[in-house]
Amino acid sequence: MRIAYWCVLTAGLLPIVSVSLAKAGVKGYDNRMPRDWLTQLSGWQQRANAAQQNAWEAFALFSVAVILSALQSAPEAKVDTLALAFIAARVAYLGCYLADLATLRTLVWMAGFGCTLAIFLAGP
């Protein structure tokens, strides 16, 4: 299986990691209204929830890019490298969000988005 496919799985798990961090150690979690409860968080946990939301947004375009690159018989090594770079950028993005490094977070987001666009353009 292509490395890029494993990266799609990893990208799909990153939002779950982010929201798990947001919920970690906080008392009073309400499973009946989890989204309302998450909006009441503050500090790094609120940022972890925001990172979760952005991770879902990034996942959609990235996963479509990888699938279309496979359908177009794009060079596997190139797509795999870009997919790994995307995952690295997304992990760094989460770290920047948690650490409240807004400017660096934006630059890392742009790098990940650039990887996704490059995957779209990787086909013949």
Return the CATH class.
Mainly Alpha
SSE arrangement, N to C: HHHHH
- What do we call the CATH topology? Four Helix Bundle (Hemerythrin (Met), subunit A)
Counted beta strands: 0
CATH homologous superfamily identity: Membrane associated eicosanoid/glutathione metabolism-like domain
- Give the helix/strand class: mainly alpha
Rg measurement, Å? 16 Å
CATH-derived architecture? Up-down Bundle
What is the overall shape?
Answer: elongated
- State the end-to-end distance: 21 Å
Helix content: over 70%
Mean residue pLDDT: 92
Question: How many domains would you count in the coordinates?
Answer: 1
The count of helical stretches stands at 5
Low-confidence stretches: none
The percentage of residues in β strands lies in under 5%
Question: SSE layout and pairings?
Answer:
Layout: H1 3-23, H2 34-39, H3 43-71, H4 76-98, H5 102-120
Helix pairs in contact: 1-3, 1-4, 3-4, 3-5, 4-5
Task: Please explain how this structure is put together.
The chain has a single domain, classed as Up-down Bundle (Four Helix Bundle (Hemerythrin (Met), subunit A)), CATH 1.20.120. The two termini are 21 Å apart. It is elongated and about 50 Å long. The chain has 124 residues and is mostly helical. 33% of the residues are buried. Helices cover 79% and strands 0% of the residues.
Sum this structure up briefly.
By secondary structure, this protein is mainly α. It has helices at residues 3-23, 34-39, 43-71, 76-98, 102-120. It starts with a helix and ends with a helix.
